[in-house]
Amino acid sequence: MAEHDSPESLIPRRVREERQRCRWTLEQLAERAGVSRAMISKIERGESSPTAVLLARLGAAMGVSLSSLMSAPRAAAPALRRVGEQPVWVDPETGYVRRLVSPTGGEGDVEVVAIELPAGKAVTFSPSASLRSDEQVLLLEGVLVLDSGGVRFELRPGDCARLDADREHAFRNDGPAVARYLVVKRHDPASC
Questions:
Q1: Interstrand relation of 169-172 and 122-125 (parallel, antiparallel or unpaired)
Q2: How confident is the model over 86-102, as pLDDT tens digits?
Q3: Does the pLDDT value for residue 2 go beyond 60?
Q4: What is the rounded CA–CA span in Å between residue 55 and residue 78?
Q5: Which residues are within 8 A (CB) of 173 and not within 5 positions of it... i.e. 6 or more apart?
Q6: CA torsion, ordered 114, 116, 121, 126, to nearest 10 deg
Q7: Buried/exposed 141-165: b ≥16 CB within 10 Å, e otherwise
Q8: What is the count of structural domains for the chain?
């Protein structure tokens, strides 16, 4: 699997690889993620363009991050990922743009993701008991409203908030322009 593969070409392979790593059938993953077997099959065959929320549910069920389903398996450090090599993925439902900034790294590594959320759009991620991560969100441009487990943050450029994957959190752009922000995550090693 080449480092420069697009997220669209990697997603089907990575979902299948992670499901197989867990030694799960399509039915088992469907039950754990709350996603239909037919949809998972379509994703693995590259016949469906899944949303960020759906991919996050699949990843959480398998104990891996959304970003890990969009990039090549992690390699050992040191590593460099130039801006032109950073995979970019667009959510087909919201136009949310996700750029994987971090080079691939080791288990339990820190991950940096650059996000662009269009004006008037929102994405909501379900809580995950199996994917343990600590996330920090740094707003670079625009405005962003975060709801995390009943706590609401209204971010302005330069503001930083901490989230926890075991709570539902929603990102909403109520502003007139694109909200640009970084998500910095630390993941515990994956387990099925």
A1: antiparallel
A2: 989 999 999 999 998 98
A3: no
A4: 28
A5: 117, 118, 119, 120, 121, 122, 142, 143, 144, 145, 179
A6: -10
A7: ebbbbbbbeeeebebeeeeebebeb
A8: 2
| Calpha distance 47→184 (Å, rounded) | 31
Average pLDDT value for residue range 102-125:
84
Predicted TM-score (pTM) of the model is 0.68
Q: Kindly tell me if the per-residue pLDDT of 117 is higher than 70.
A: yes
Is position 21 within any domain?
A: yes
Report d(CA 157, CA 143) in Å as an integer.
Answer: 7
User: Does residue 91 share a domain with residue 39?
Assistant: no
Q: Which residue has the tokens 């008037």?
A: 120
Same domain, 18 and 54: yes
Angstrom distances, CA of residue 181 to CA of 69, 88, 97, 110, 120: 20, 14, 11, 16, 15
- Shared domain check, 162 and 97: yes
